[in-house]
Design goal:
The protein is an alpha+beta fold. 21% of the residues lie in helices and 30% in strands. The strands form five sheets. Strands 6-5-4-1-7 form a five-stranded antiparallel sheet, with no helix packed on it. A five-stranded antiparallel sheet has the order 15-14-11-10-16. Strand 10 and strand 11 form a beta hairpin. The longest helix has 23 residues.
Amino acid sequence: MNPKVGVVKVSRLNMRPRPSTNKPSIGQLGRGDRVEIVRREGNWYRVKAGELTGYVYAKYVAVEGRASASAHGNARGNVPGADREAHMSEVMDARVFLLLMAARMVGDYLYAWGGEEAGEGGFDCSGFASVALMQTARAWPALYDGGRMTAAGLYKYFDDKGCPDITRVEDLMPGCLVFYRRPGKRIHHIAIHATNVPPILLEKDAGNRPVEVGPVAFESGGSGSAATTPRAALTKSAGVRLTASDSHGRGVEWVAKDPFVLLNAS
């Protein structure tokens, strides 16, 4: 029986010696490359591409049918310039998807402590972030496989994965996870950074001081504010809403992680 042939559907696909993203890449395939599918093992295909035999994630390979000869895939040891640019585009697509998953919940769900779906009354901050990550990971499985976690748990998850801390606003990228805590305390809140809006002075506060509105994030929060400043207006309604990325109350510190660096290693 002739083997099945698969066609790579993404711009860059790592081939690994074992069916696990924890194993190093032994070569890379590009969009349109053809491989000989030896067998399926769970979510992975064991394939032959040129002189290499290894494992690729099955979701990214379309089965074409039976081959009359060996597939002529060419596994590469590095990514050419065009493929590298295409991969950067895919990572940006993943960022956009995560933000869309977050944005579509704004105004539609109330805050519910411990909640992670509408049937539970809405979302709390970590339920909101976990669900957005899980939805995005359906298309980009290397991004996240941790399930429902607390804010502190999400920080530890991405810290253990090697995602470095981000502490400067100018280093925030769309889709970064922003974690909040008081000095010496455990992380208690999380938001998803949306955009670095250039600082704008919109109005004056009660002390006649200019109020600066800067970077914006999505969160699920439970308490409103009676203040009338633009920053407070972002967090006036309880539920999935917009908030300020770099400010979450007096004395609260923030640190961020960029989960999308994991896609560069997948």
